[in-house]
Structure formats: C-alpha cells, structure tokens
Amino acid sequence: MVPALQEPKTHSTSTVTSMEDEEDPIETSHSRLRNIYTPISKYLHHPAALPSLALSILYFTVLNFGAQMITYLLTPGYTPLHISSIRGISVLFEISATWLAPLVMSRVGPIRGGLWFVNWQLLCVAGAVSAFWFLENPMMAAGGLILGVILSRIGLWGFDLCVQIIIQDEVEPAYRGSFSAMEASVQNTFELGSYAMTVVFARPAEFKYPVFMSAVAVFVAAVLFAGFVRKRRGHLVHTPACFGGMDVKRRAEEEGYLRLVS
C-alpha cells in the first residue's frame, strides 16, 4: 500500500575498514558527540516539539494504576479483587477515548481537541489530588484518588491521540523515525523519574508527595500545550466558535483533519 516501502535498499560496496583505522580519535569523538547532539537539537527545535514534550511529561506520574499506585491501594485496605475491578473500569474509560477523540477532532481539529482533553485531565487530576490530600479517612481519600484518576484517563488517551495526529501531520516523512525515537527516549526518561519518586518516597504515608508531583507534571504539560496552541492559533479561546459563530465543517478543514476522517 506504500510505494516508498517497496523500493529496494541500496548498499555501499566501498570498504571503509582501513579508513576507520586511520581516523583521528579526537575527530571520532567529535563525530560521536554530533551524532548525539544533532537529533536532540532537531527534536527540540521542531515545530511539533512542544506537543510532543507535553505528552512526554505526562509519563512522570504515579496516577496510572501501575505498580506504584496498586501497591499503595493495598495499604488502606483495598483487596486485589477491588483493584482488579477498578482497573477494568479504568480500561473502559480509556477505550471510550479512542471513540471520543476522533469525534472531537472531526469537529474542532486535533489542536483544539488536544487542548480540551489535556485540560479535562488536569481538572480530574486536581480533584483527585485534593481529595487525597484533604480527606482524613484513608479509604475515602484513596477512593477520591481512584475516581479522579479513572475520569482523567479519557483526557490522557484523547490528548495522546490528538498529539500523535499533530506529529504525523507536521513531522517530515524522512525525519519521523528520528523524531519518534527521540520522543520515546524523553518519555522513558520521565517514566524512570516516576519510579525514582517512589524510591525516594517509599513509605505509604509519603505517597502523597509523588501524587502531588504527578499533578504538577500534568499542569506543566497543559501549560506547554497551551503555549503551542497560543503560538499556532494566536489565541486559546475562539469566542465566535464557542457560541456557534463559525461553521463547524470549516473549522475542521482549517485544522487539516477533515481529510483524515472522511
């Protein structure tokens, strides 16, 4: 289906072994440094870097029903059966985002849709963290955290889909592999940071600190994406569109997404 993938690979027949043996060690070192620096620099200076970074920062979290959060939920008295049921409900909300996100993008485009989804996630996480910090009953505090995290998954998955559409549209085909590799590296770095949080704050009574820092990460991601939207569109809220003053179909065409879902 993709003609470019049908083209045969070209292999160089020249022998470079003897040349490599004669290379200057200093020049070789500089070359290796350039090989590391160049993709990082290109990634950070690319127009799609902000949404990609915003998505990557969301990996700095313990609010994802992963090992860290599950381990904590066992502390206030939730049983493995309770946790399995909760995770099942969370998955249903996540799957619903795969239906909701294309619907939203077809109407307002991926840029504005991404702004809506990340703000929804921020709102849900803020409510979850507030309940967890201020409710005195451990079971109720954990319950508030669970509810907020479940609802936030719609925003997370919807935002992820919107950002990936933006990246696929804006990153040059020849550079997509390098860009995606850099994005995955940044995501893995933030994910390692989330595990480091629970290494530092290892006691159940200290779990509130990783929870708070996870909420800060969502806030930073929302700010970064809002900056991207402001830079790209010149505004964050389009008043006529909010009150139906602009034709819905024309808005989608301006975002360049209508052709993808038609």
Automatic annotation (TrEMBL):
It is found in: Membrane. Its main location: membrane. The keyword Transmembrane helix applies. One of its GO terms (molecular function) is iron ion transmembrane transporter activity. Keywords: Ion transport, Membrane, Transmembrane, Transmembrane helix, Transport. Residues 1-27 are annotated as: Disordered. Pfam families: FPN1. It is a multi-pass membrane protein. One of its GO terms (cellular component) is membrane. The chain crosses the membrane at residues 53-74, 86-105, 117-135, 209-229. It comes from the Eukaryota. May be involved in iron transport and iron homeostasis. Belongs to the ferroportin (FP) (TC 2.A.100) family. SLC40A subfamily. This is Solute carrier family 40 member.
